[in-house]
Structures are given as structure tokens and as C-alpha cells.
Amino acid sequence: MKYRPEIDGLRAIAVLSVLIFHLEIVLFERIILKGGYLGVDIFFVISGYLITYIIVNETKNNSFSLLNFYERRARRILPILLFIILIFLPVFWLTLLPFELKEYAESGLYALSFLSNFYFYSNSIEYGAPESFELPLLHTWSLSVEEQFYLFSPAFFILIWKKFNNYIYFIIFLIALSSILFSSIMASINYEYNYYLVYSRIWEILVGSFIAIYEIKNGIKKDSKLYDACTIIGLSILILSLIFFDKNTKHPSYITILPIIGVALIIFCSSGKDIVGKILSNKILVFIGIISFSIYLWHFPIISFALS
Fold first, then answer.
1. How confident is the model at residue 127, as a pLDDT?
2. Where would I find the H helices in the chain?
3. Which 8-state DSSP code applies to residue 35?
4. Among 136, 204, 224, 293, which is least packed by CB within 10 angstroms?
5. HSE-up of 268 (CA within 13 Å, CB side)?
């Protein structure tokens, strides 16, 4: 697929938002970006878009290889994740209490198995709470959610593309709608379950999938002023969400539709030549976006070590 630097710029916004949220930076006696945790949701939409585009486009061209798909995912994630877990092991050996070190080792094994979201949920860890920084690998829950989606997505998209192509939008919409309803209900019943587990998040990923499939089926034409206006609206919604969402916002739920729409409008409407596209294609943002995965993996253990 054609390289889109504005998506790397969007990745930069995502990782910087998460970083600022975890650092709890204060400006004018107010913590800025209280909704910075939405950076993870931005990543989910981007991942859904890119992964679905790869699967469906290669399926369309009869070039998709399941083995190659999983190999690429493993090569991208496992080496750096294993390296970080191992390099911090002697550091935390000296700073953590024995039971904390045991938790670190357990969470590392679950992270490498892409099951850490289940681990943190089963231990009733509230994401964003002060004690959450005592768990250096807490942030790997989002990797597990994505990898669990990647586990089943090839078979799912190949099936609906080949057998149910005429109903493909309806199928994706129906699953996404049920996921939104589920997350909205669970947000009031069981916060940890809703936050960590994949079914509450899958609708965010499928928003990106919907865009990818639409582009493959209908082509890409983004040269009108309407598209430009939509990207500005999308970025505005996203920034306002990052500012005004906070730890008390029921998330994910129906209200999360706002920032997800913002991200979707940018991905769907930006041509890279519009105002928002040019901002996001800035060399600095693109560079940060390219290394965003590494920044995301490194930042939380470093903050945890600094606070230990």
C-alpha cells in the first residue's frame, strides 16, 4: 500500500498523548491531557486500518500468506519486547520487593504470550491508578488486545471477503455495534473487565478495518474541500477529547465514539496535501511516529523504575 506519512504523524500524537498522560505534566496548576490514555485507542484504529488493508488487499490479489503474516507480526513485536523484559530484570531485581519481582516475572511471561490483558484484569489492576506504576509491564495489555485481534482477523476477513463480499459492510457494522453496546454496559458494571478485554475494544479496531475495506473496494479520491474540512473537524474532535476526557470518563463506551470518529475522519479524508495532512506529515512528527512503538514499549518501565 502507498506510504502515508500523515498516519505516522497520527501515531506520534498517540504515543505523545500516552507519554504525557503517564508523566502527569502540570501546566498552570492543571494536569494537561487528562485524556491522554486515548492514545491507545488511536493506535487501535490505525492498527485496524493497516492490518485489514494488508490482509484484504493481499487476499484480493491472491498473495496472502498466513505464515508470512504471523511471522511479520512476531518479528515486529517479540524481539524488542523480550529485550526490554530482560534488560530491566536486573534493574528491578535491585529495586523491587520479592513479591513485586515475582509479579514482574509473571507479567513478562503473560506479555510474551500476548495474554497480559487477562493477567492484569484477573489481578484487578486499575489502569491509571497510582499503584499501577508499580507494574512495569502494565502497558503491554494493549499489545495483547491487538495480537488477539490479529490471531483471528486473517480467517475472518478472508472469509467475509470471499464468501460474503456483498454483506461485508453490514457484518463489520453489526459486530462493531454489538461491541459498542457491550462496552457501554460494562463500563458501569465492571470497569477493569471493560478496559482490558478485547471485545470492548474490537469496535475501535473495526472502524479502521471498515475504512481499509472501503478504500480497497472503491478506490481513494480525497481532493475536494469537503474532505479537507472533515480532516479539520476530525483533528479538532480528537484534540478536544484528549483535553476533556479524564479518569472519571466511562471509557470505553458510547462516549469514546467521539475521539474514534476524529481519528477515522483523519485517516479516511486526509490526502496528505490538506492542512491537517501537512501538519501530521511534519518531519518531526513523522520521525516520532516511526519510532512510536519503541517509545511506547520503553516509556512505562522507565517511569516505573523512576518511581520505585
1. 83
2. 5-23, 38-60, 66-95, 98-112, 116-122, 141-163, 168-189, 191-196, 202-218, 225-244, 257-269, 275-280, 283-290, 292-307
3. T
4. 224
5. 23
